[in-house]
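User: Um, what's this?
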Amino acid sequence: MAVRIESVTPGSVAQKKHICGGDTLLSINGHTISDVLDYRFYLNESKLVLEVEKDGKVKKIKIRKDEADDIGLEFRTYLMDSQHACKNKCVFCFVDQLPEGLRDSLYFKDDDSRLSFLFGNYITLTNMSEDEIDRIITMHISPINISVHTMNPELRVEMMKNPNAGTSLRFIRKLADAGITLNTQLVLCPGINDGAELDYSLSELAKLIPAVQSIAAVPVGITCHRQGLANLRLFTPEEAGRVIDTIDEFNRTLTENGGYPVAYAADEFFIQAQRPIPGENYYGDYPQLENGVGLWSLLKSEFMQALESAPSPAVSQKRKITWATGVAAYPLVCELAKAAQNKFENLQIDVCEVRNRLFGPTVTVAGLLSGKDYFDTLKDVSLGQKIIIPEVSLRKEDDRFLDDMTLSQLQQALGVKVSPVPNDGAVLLSELIED
């Protein structure tokens, strides 16, 4: 394969070597370049020989650089070819539960190992070949995030509706044996892959420690748009509690045998079980934050530390803030708001619980709230000087909500500044007390 160069950065090494947009990159140091992983891996040397096709002729171009330096080639897409689509038809797939009318990109199901390495996406391994696994091992791409769901091959085929789902589990062992670090997740569906099946999956993944550095158990997400899909339901409080207990017992066994905890239940399980979120010591180095594991604990810890060190007169004039969040985080936000108001007498924080009208009441996380959800909740509220919302509600590239409403459109509709804030306790406190 080869990749077409879209453009060249002005003043770059590539431009000085007379490489132009429209040329084709064939190889680097004799290695064929087919996508971003090849390009990044083989570019990371100080002496390069590029084979470039220019006007139908192949030229060899020598380049010297510092290892970390870029050479200035730009390609049509970030991956340098098309994104790999998912070939599974998982019974719990969230994309299948989306309503019509959202932006097109939300309906694309990716299952791309390159995105796992570059952006932390989770992959199932079902559409990968031995050659692709070997490339990961050769390049020592690590860590890799894997959606396992179950270590039972037959059940995995049934859940993912892909005949390769069971046999592809062998790749987990192959990657582990090659020293590739693995973060794994189990999307649990009550009555399907919890209970005894969860015990089995945990025990099988334990055999691959230390390559398997973390296991996240995440409850299935269910929207109100499941017409014609498999009959799934949410966990009951008792079932959610059993998942937590199973994971705690698994970690206890590891510790008693000289190991360390690697498995964690997502925050949602504690909410569903109506149990307190554990303290920060429970989560170690927080290896699965992107999966909603330990977000509450970390945010509370950071916020309380920042609050303790903040000077009491930090809010010199009366100040009213509206803090809007999803149903799941509402109790925590109320706790943090109360702590801040207790310290700063001039600070008034009104916490608004935003219910999800787009996906239905079973979806409670702030990351899946739409712009209209926020507007419908806040339009008749006395908002004060500013509204704070979780940054995860927005697509970072263009500040758009899931329903394509922009942040500026929401601000204009409400007539008040709307500040998206990351899951960072210190930053959050600053937004509350600073103009």
User: Anything to note?
Assistant: Residues 115-119 have pLDDT under 50 and may be disordered. The two ends are 54 Å apart (CA to CA). The domain at 95-291 is CATH 3.80.30.10 (pyruvate-formate lyase- activating enzyme). The CA atoms of residues 176 and 208 lie 6 Å apart.
